[in-house]
Structures are given as structure tokens and as C-alpha cells.
Amino acid sequence: MALTSSRVRAVNAVFETGSFAAAARRLGVSQPAVAQLVRDLEAEFAVALFDRHGQSLIATPLCRRLYAATSRMQAIEADALAILQQRDELTGGELRIGLGNAMPGMALIAAFRNLYPKIQINIEIGSWSAIMAAVVDQRVDVAVLPEVPQDNRFRREPCVQQRVVAICHPVHDLSRESRVSIAGLMQYPLVFRTRDSATQRAVDRAFRAVNLRASPAIIVNTREGMLEAVANRLGVGFVWEHGSSRIDRIAKVAIAEIEAESPEYIFSLAGKRGKLVELFYLARSLSRPADGTDILAAP
């Protein structure tokens, strides 16, 4: 069964104008063509979308529900088309982006650059608290972070779901396991981040939930420091599952007590507007390949 865009446009135009003739004028096609598209859809799904009263068409309750859903799709399609049509006009400008994790932010930036290669990108990478401050102080225009608070100051849109996992060197005993418990982690030297890290807060919550207190062997203040410590066999560390595309000398292991995924957000100040900021919010949906592959999926 085909719910094609042409059928949707015809139904929505009739819904909004009240007749086949008016819908045809809006769409720039013939009246019989509009009527046929609507009738074909009704016949294929064995539904009634309009009640005929003389020259007027009254939408059925089913049609109203269909319109509520598909009108949003049409609005997104129209926005995307307008953005793509402006592509050649975007020959300059600068977008400042803050990243807590290298990924998924770098994947979003790559998608944005594929669409708008002439825009200069300035990237600030830091801890969760540093990037939050960069947004509030307007040192960056838009950022990508987990655990963005639901606050009227911010506009936020989820871009990927992920959870914190343990990481170790590929020859470490833990690398042979698909899952480890918090209690099981206690037998290994642990590498923690500083408390201004969203990763570390998630790890601390997991330890508290099972009434265990860990004494880390090493505390580092950056994600790169965490990755290097683990790659050099200094202990077991923790990262967001899709937080890095790095795969050399790193093995990821799920943590039994951290099953739930959390959203990572694209976010900015609520009043922060501008074409480039809006384009970055749209970057993921506009760049998704035709085969449906998720550009943010971890390697």
C-alpha cells in the first residue's frame, strides 16, 4: 500500500480548501487529477476521507487525524527543501560549536560540512560544565552534550541515545566479557574523570545505586586522557558508548547496572537564532543516506 507524497498533498489540499477545484488551483494541477489521487487512496486503504455535501467536502474524523500527522511531515519537507535551495547562497560565515564528546558531535559536523562546505567551523571541546558555560556565555553558538537540563534558557533536541560503558585494553581480562557488574569492576584499577564530567556523574550514580564506593587508581580531567590511560593499560575507564570513534587499543564492555540509554542533545540558548544555527539542527535529518544508515552509529 502506497501513501505517496502526491496523495498526501492532494488530501491535505482538499482538507484545507474544502473542494477538489480549490485544491487543484493551489497545487497547479487539474481537478480530476486531485480527485483521482484522493479516491485512489480511499480505495486502496478502504477508508472514507471526505463526506460529500453538494460541492463541499467535509473531512471525516479519520481524515482529520491523518492531516494532523501528515501536515507536520509536509512542514518538515518544506523546511528541508528551503534549506537545500539556499545551499549555494551560503558561501561564507562562521559557526562556533561546543562538544562534550568527540562523537556524535563530529559526525554531525561532518554532515553539516558535506552540505555547506564553505562555512567555517570553530570547535571547542571540553568537559560537560565547560561546554555548558560556553553556551551560556555565548562563546559557542550551538553545542552537543548529554544531560542538558530541561530549562527555559535552552532549546534542546535529542540527536542520539547512548549509555556509559566500561573500556579496557583489548588484552585485558575484562575484554573477553560482554557485560560486567559494578561489583565486578571493583577488582580492577579504575580510571575516573573529574566531577565536572557527565560521564563520571553517571558512573557515580551507578556505584551509589549498589552501595559501593570505588577508590580510583587514576583521575583524569579530559576524555583524551581517559582514552590514553586505558590504551596504556593503566586501568578500566568509562565513556559514553558512542562518545568516540576510536577503536585502537580500546575494548568496550556493557555495564549491567547501566542498561538505560540517555539522550545526547543538540542545544543552544533559547533566543539564539540565525540561519547557521538552524542548519546545524537540521544537519542530521538532511544528511541521512537513502538506505537509512544512521550517520551517528558507532563503528
UniProtKB/TrEMBL annotation:
The UniProt record lists the keyword Transcription regulation: yes
HTH lysR-type domain location: 3-60
UniProt lineage: Bacteria, Pseudomonadati, Pseudomonadota, Alphaproteobacteria, Hyphomicrobiales
UniProt keyword annotation of Chloroplast present: no
Family that this chain belongs to: Belongs to the LysR transcriptional regulatory family.
Alphabetized UniProt keyword annotations: DNA-binding, Transcription, Transcription regulation
PROSITE patterns linked to this entry: HTH_LYSR (PS50931)
Protein name per UniProt: LysR family transcriptional regulator
Function: NodD regulates the expression of the nodABCFE genes which encode other nodulation proteins. NodD is also a negative regulator of its own expression. Binds flavonoids as inducers.
GO molecular function annotation: DNA-binding transcription factor activity; transcription cis-regulatory region binding
Pfam families: HTH_1 (PF00126), LysR_substrate (PF03466)
